[in-house]
Amino acid sequence: MRNGVAEDIGAFLPDGPVLFVTDANLRAIGLTEPALTELREWHDVAVFDAVEEDPSEASVLAAVALGREAGAVSVVGFGGGSPMDVAKAAAYLLGSGDEIAGIYGVGRARGEGLPLVLVPTTAGTGSEATSISILTVGGTEKKGIVAPALYADHALLDPLLTTGLPRHIIAATGVDAMVHAIEAFTSRDLKNPLSDLLAKEALGLLAANIRTACDAPGDLAAREAMLRGAFLAGVAFANAPVAGVHALAYPLGGHFHVPHGLANTLMLPHVLAHNMEAAGPMYAELAPLVDPALAPLGIEGRAQGFVEALVAIAADIGLSPRLADVGVGAADCAMLADEAMKQQRLLVNNPVAITREDARRIYEAAL
Ligand SMILES: [Fe+2]
């Protein structure tokens, strides 16, 4: 991590053509230019900039086709979670020669991908630190490819890249990162002392800096803290996976195109309330990191205060929507619950079981 490190990207790649995956908006505002200019001095570069929000399997296949045509020997993912997730899947497919249909799920991508460098331009997804690529398949369903082969060889954290972000994106991606830390800390079976330490460090950094990052765009120290926090939360949930909040958020992205961070913000307090019986003591442990004033309270007070403090942060940074604000009505809750049940990969990590009926009730509470 350092200001300007993205311009040194060429030093992290092997000789030979590079597939550079980004999105059209980042190119249009010129954010990719310093890195691309530097890169072109050393490498032939094929740029794939057609990554969309909630990236599709089709985007990955198009990126792979371009990479193959260019003879790419390495891949760069430059942007938010979407370009990074496409780059991860494309690097794997180009290197391994596998078919994409056979690698969805956990541990099914067993080949070797091309060398991969990820450069996040938001402080949120933590995708630069995880072995997960989330793609939209068949128009609405979110599917994950999860395997060690998807880890990047290098993640370059450059706070300068995040200074031009609009406030609502800083806010939503920042909450996403906080949810990664929280869900890693309460992950049911794979919670472990190392991911706990990383999650706590991440949540403390994110909670202490998210308001400043949103309100003072030029505050580089806050941007650096957010980028570091998002990365550490990514390392935490790469080892102790996320759970119910994400499981219920994904159908909102798939069916209503609610941005991922905002979808998490919508579901967060309601899933935490559902989890309280089992996860309360863990939420109590995290509470002073989010609001130091909660420290003297008992376990129950801290756990309740934790949820309230998270809602207060979301409101302060301009995120206090209800499902109704993003076009979801009461009649949609049953369908969303059905869709959430497809996210068993995530639901199994939740500290409390979420049945279809629970999911429907949680969506209804968020209306
Ligand atoms: Fe997330």
Outline the structure in words.
The chain has 367 residues and is an alpha/beta fold. The protein folds into 2 domains: 5-160, Rossmann fold (3-Layer(aba) Sandwich), CATH 3.40.50.1970; 166-366, Dehydroquinate synthase-like, alpha domain (Up-down Bundle). The chain has helices at 24-28, 33-42, 57-70, 81-96, 167-185, 193-215, 220-239, 244-256, 260-290, 299-316, 333-340, 344-347, 356-365; strands at 18-21, 45-48, 74-79, 105-106, 116-120, 132-137, 141-146, 154-155. The strands form 2 sheets. A 5-stranded parallel β-sheet has the order 2-1-3-5-8, with helices on both faces. The radius of gyration is 20 Å and the shape is globular. The chain starts with 17 loop residues before the first strand and ends with a helix. The mean pLDDT is 95. Bound molecules: fe (ii) ion (FE2). Fe (ii) ion is lined by residues 125, 176, 180, 246, 260.
